[in-house]
Amino acid sequence: MKICFFGIYDPAYSRSSVLLRGLRQNGAEVIECRADWRDPKRYKKLWRQLRALDNGYDCIFAAYPASVPVILAKLLSKKPVIIDAFYSNFDSVVNDRKKYSRWNPRSIKLLILDWLGVILSDLVITDTHAHERYWRSWFGMNRKKMGTVYVGVDDKMFFPMEAKGKDHILVLFMGTFIPLQGSRKIVEAAHLCSSDPKIRFRFIGDGRDFPPAKRLAEKYQLQNSEFIGMRPLSELNSHIAEADIVLGIFGDTAKACRVIPNKVYEGLYARRAVMTMDNAVIREIFSPEDMLLVRNDPQSMADGIKLLSKDDRLRSEFARRGHEAVSRYVPVRVGRDLL
């Protein structure tokens, strides 16, 4: 099968890199037709590239972010168009991050583009069944043209490494500091753990909630927490290897209940104990034996961290079982699912 991998996607982003490698590992011929999302002429360049291919492929896979690329593909191509409906830009910007009000003209534009992307596509791929149910609720959606392909983990970028000896338990958060992550709750949990000098927290990343999270840590005068900002993707596996506990997400937004974040896959594959909030979406493919599942309130989170910090055997068991479970979602398996 010859697939045109199409759009303004970042090939280094986990979702795209896993799918690209997985498709190729399963024998698919992949033609990348891409423009940089930061280029003001990106859609004009995509138009020219796709025209030059002259339908010389079996289908088009519009990679996230895909709404506008889908519209271009349907205008130019005679072949089936598949959209990676990784998430709704409208939902992310309006409901999750609350950047714009629902009736802001920019919000309405995002809503229309999201809707056109899934309506015009011949097949809609989502990253969880919960996300599939979300898209099914959109007006006019044909439920028969939907399928789920889980995010998985880039096993070249993330893998088990030898842990370095240290005299403390390191709890790692890495993320974009958006509401979905629940970063301020993690700071509250760090405060509740501050009486134990052996528990330390490391926060990696940046985003809208970074300043308030750091201010909260300063308010509590936390000596057990460090904020080191953004780090290159190439460094993250080393940080995971240094950690004893890797944190998932703890947000209160609806989107937080529809996604399984990259960090959960990555922490598990690096053979570390992972703790995240308990909900239906995480149980789609994982179980309470694979990681510690807790309520997304600071006290429950702190209790979970304290439990894991005091029990080396429990951390090791979660790390072992979690690695076994997530090994079903390496690129070759994810690519096979997509095909």
Strand content: 15-25%
Tell me the overall shape.
globular
Question: What does the main sheet amount to?
Answer: 6 strands, parallel
The number of distinct β-strands equals: 12
How far apart are the first and last residues' alpha carbons, in Å? 9 Å
Helix content: 40-55%
Structural class: alpha/beta
- In quaternary terms, these chains amount to single chain
Q: What is the strand arrangement across the widest sheet? A: 2-1-3-4-5-6
Structure description:
With 339 residues, the chain is an alpha/beta fold. The chain has 13 helices and twelve strands. It has helices at 14-25, 42-53, 67-76, 89-96, 105-120, 129-136, 183-192, 210-219, 233-242, 262-269, 298-310, 312-326, 331-338; strands spanning 2-7, 29-34, 59-62, 81-84, 123-126, 146-148, 169-175, 199-205, 225-227, 245-247, 273-277, 292-294. The strands form two sheets. It has a six-stranded parallel beta sheet with strand order 2-1-3-4-5-6, with helices on both faces. Strands 9-8-7-10-11-12 form a six-stranded parallel beta sheet, with helices on both faces. Helix 7 (183-192) crosses helix 11. The longest helix has 16 residues, at 105-120. The mean pLDDT is 96.
Ordered list of secondary-structure elements with their pairings:
Elements: E1 2-7, H1 14-25, E2 29-34, H2 42-53, E3 59-62, H3 67-76, E4 81-84, H4 89-96, H5 105-120, E5 123-126, H6 129-136, E6 146-148, E7 169-175, H7 183-192, E8 199-205, H8 210-219, E9 225-227, H9 233-242, E10 245-247, H10 262-269, E11 273-277, E12 292-294, H11 298-310, H12 312-326, H13 331-338
Parallel strand pairs: 1-2, 1-3, 3-4, 4-5, 5-6, 7-8, 7-10, 8-9, 10-11, 11-12
Helix pairs in contact: 1-13, 2-3, 3-5, 4-5, 7-8, 7-11
